[in-house]
């Protein structure tokens, strides 16, 4: 998944023509239920996620290939140990707050991923049978948001990308991106 997200991050950064020295950010919501000590039970109903930000210079992201960006994502995700998670939630209990992007992260320099193909959304049956697809509503759309769902076919991923039209059009003309997604 980190390679897939890095592919998108690199392509969007290229299409935005970001200065190589500018910092670009990727906001990830890391599922921590299995990392907690003791871990939450299998039947836990609710979210247990921590927002984390991967930051790189645009030139480093673009010149380093998929491996460089995916490795940086992996490093940030791997930092979420049981102790760090415990400290995060204890701090939140003392001072509850809503997630706000740090200053300098807003604007054109970030992407955010929500949801995950690990959640069995397609397994929901509300009495009408198995879903054919999952879509997000307009209230969940946010510029620079990438939402991932497990697809209808076993092992597939559905991706919802909310970007301005001009970036989507540029993605369609990006040879490196299209070579990967059209094969």
Q: In percent, how helical is the residue content?
A: 25-40%
CATH topology of the domain at 2-113 and 165-176: Chloramphenicol Acetyltransferase
Structural class: alpha/beta
Kindly estimate the percentage of residues that lie in beta strands according to DSSP: 15-25%
Query: Which outline best applies?
Result: globular
What would you report as the Rg, rounded to the nearest angstrom?
18 Å
Mean pLDDT: 83
Q: What's the CATH first level of the domain at 2-113 and 165-176?
A: Alpha Beta
Which helices and strands, and how do they pair?
Elements: H1 2-15, E1 23-31, E2 49-57, H2 58-63, H3 65-78, H4 82-94, E3 110-114, E4 145-150, E5 157-162, H5 165-172, H6 175-181
Parallel strand pairs: 1-3, 3-4
Antiparallel strand pairs: 1-2, 4-5
Helix pairs in contact: 1-3
Walk me through this protein's architecture:
There is one protein chain. Helices cover 34% and strands 19% of the residues. It starts with a helix and ends with a helix. Strand 4 (145-150) and strand 5 form a beta hairpin. Strands 2-1-3-4-5 form a 5-stranded mixed β-sheet. The protein has a domain at 2-113 and 165-176: Chloramphenicol Acetyltransferase (2-Layer Sandwich), CATH 3.30.559. The protein contains 6 helices and 5 strands; from the N terminus they run αββαααβββαα. The chain is α/β, with parallel strands linked by helices. Keywords: Signal, Transferase. InterPro entries: CAT-like_dom_sf, Sec_Metabolite_Acyltrans. Pfam families: Transferase. GO terms for molecular function: transferase activity. Residues 1-15 form the signal peptide.
């Amino acid at each position: 998944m980190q390679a897939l997200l890095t592919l998108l991050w690199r392509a969007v950064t290229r299409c935005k023509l970001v200065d190589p020295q500018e910092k670009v950010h990727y906001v990830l919501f890391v599922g921590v239920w299995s990392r907690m000590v003791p871990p939450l039970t299998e039947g836990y109903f609710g979210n247990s996620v921590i927002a984390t930000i991967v930051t790189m210079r645009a030139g480093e992201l673009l010149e380093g290939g998929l491996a460089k960006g995916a490795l940086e994502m992996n490093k940030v995700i791997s930092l979420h140990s049981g102790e760090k998670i415990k400290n995060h939630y204890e701090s939140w209990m003392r001072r509850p707050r809503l997630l706000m992007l740090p200053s300098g992260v807003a604007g054109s320099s970030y992407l955010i991923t929500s949801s995950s193909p690990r959640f069995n959304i397609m397994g929901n049956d509300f009495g009408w049978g198995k879903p054919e697809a999952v879509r997000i509503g307009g209230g969940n759309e946010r510029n620079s948001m990438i939402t991932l769902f497990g697809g209808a076919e076993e092992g597939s991923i559905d991706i919802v990308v909310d970007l301005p039209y001009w970036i989507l059009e540029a993605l369609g003309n990006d040879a490196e991106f299209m070579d990967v997604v059209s094969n």
